[in-house]
Amino acid sequence: MFSKTCEYAIRAMIFIAQKSKEGKKISIKEIAKGIDSPEYFIAKILQNLSKKGLVQSIKGPNGGFYFDENEPICTLADIVRTIDGEKLFDACGLGLKQCSEDHPCPIHNEFKNIKAATKRMLENAKLNGFADELDQCLTFLKR
């Protein structure tokens, strides 16, 4: 459903949200280990998310990635849009360019309901809720 880059981005952002609750700034090394991802790959992803303002970062020995408690925390939809664009929300389920309400593909009518439900779920999914579930050991981020 998501690109591999987007999957890593979501996992990293949830991990950062969990650790930020403790007032910590989290290093790339710690994030990569915490979500079982390659350091270089996750560093590139987080640099992009930081530039877009979805996560804060500070360089240096006491630096790292974090969420500012005074800023609203982003949703999964914000991350998906930043990494993968609007394709998940707008594209045809069969990949056709001409698919529309006036000229639907064979799965258009059913698939538009799935896309709408997915969009609603991602827009309502805030990172801090997932961080709470991790703290309670109800969910996990790595194998």
Structure description:
By secondary structure, the protein is mainly alpha-helical. Helices cover 54% and strands 4% of the residues. The chain has seven helices and two strands. A two-stranded antiparallel sheet has the order 1-2. β1 and β2 form a beta hairpin. The radius of gyration is 17 Å and the shape is elongated. 27% of the residues are buried.
Question: Helices and strands in order, then pairings?
Answer:
Layout: H1 4-20, H2 28-35, H3 39-51, E1 56-58, E2 64-66, H4 76-84, H5 87-90, H6 108-124, H7 127-135
Antiparallel strand pairs: 1-2
In a nutshell, what does this entry contain?
The chain has 143 residues and is mainly α. It is built from 7 helices and 2 strands, in the order αααββαααα.
What are the salient characteristics of this protein?
143 residues; two-stranded antiparallel sheet; 54% helix
User: Quick check: average pLDDT?
Assistant: 91
Structural class: mainly alpha
Question: How many beta strands in the DSSP annotation?
Answer: 2
| Unreliable residue stretches | none
| Assembly of the depicted chains | single chain
Side-by-side strand order of the widest sheet: 1-2
List the total number of helices.
7
| SSE pattern | HHHEEHHHH
Shape: elongated
Please give the alpha-carbon distance between the first and last residues: 19 Å
> What is Rg?
17 Å
Q: How large is the share of residues in beta strands? A: under 5%
Give the helix level as a range of percent: 40-55%
What composes the largest sheet? 2 strands, antiparallel
